[in-house]
Amino acid sequence: xxxxxxFHRVKSQQQLHESTAKLYFYQMLRAVQYLxxxxxxxxxxxxxxxLLSSQDDVCLVKVTxxxxxxxxxxxxxxxxxxxxxxxxxxxxxxxxxxxxxxLAVDAWSLGVLLFVCLGGYPPFHESFxxxxxxxxxxxxxxxxxxxxWRHVSDQAKDVVRKLLVVDPSQRxxxxxxxxxxxxxxxxxxxxxxxxxxxxxxxxxxxxxxxDPSPLQEAEQGAGPAPGSSRRKRGRDEGDEEEEHPxxxxxxxx
Length: 253
Hints:
39% of the residues lie in helices and 6% in strands. By secondary structure, the chain is mainly α. The chain has one domain: Transferase(Phosphotransferase), domain 1 (Orthogonal Bundle), CATH 1.10.510. The strands form three sheets. The protein has a three-stranded antiparallel β-sheet with strand order 1-3-4. It has a two-stranded antiparallel ribbon with strand order 2-5. Strands 6-7 form a two-stranded parallel ribbon. Helix 2 runs antiparallel to helix 4. The model is unreliable at 66-82, 203-207, 213-232 and 240-250 (pLDDT under 50). Residues 1-183 form the Protein kinase domain.
């Protein structure tokens, strides 16, 4: 496609503007939602496998490379280790040969993708301290470096944190992500639908999301709800002293 890989777009711009990242992320969510509705797990979601239709920021996004994709049979879980290490979910490392893993692995990978788009660097990388990438992922510990994330909204950070939850049963699902307040942006959704569903196709069948409910409006800008069972493992720089802040901000994609 004319716009090339998302990888090169992020690398050339260092990090995407939040509104652009939101438009791309919404389209990726919808693509993965379609796969999951047909019982298919992608298993290798990464910037190199996301193509852009043009050099413009407002463009169509396509998820590609289904070499690692598999059909998830009813009541069955995947039990093979595959994919790109930096984007693999913890359960792929810890449960691939035992209890297996399911659709939630794609939600984790999308969380890593969104982190890269917004921050301009990966959340897990071999240059971060003495832990291997595998151990970093299994622990689910990452840092949002202030110099990179200070202009990113709290709602966008919340989506990242809820997708990068180690326990797949507590991780935000694709459907939950689509209902998150950050994505209740009517202008963005209408723009995405105009790109995804050209005139004369299925656009009329796709209803725009409803206006945010009072609860969603109240949640905007608010922190996690008291008693929330989701664990917040990622932290903003400044919450705790980081061992290698310079390396985190310069780590390659």
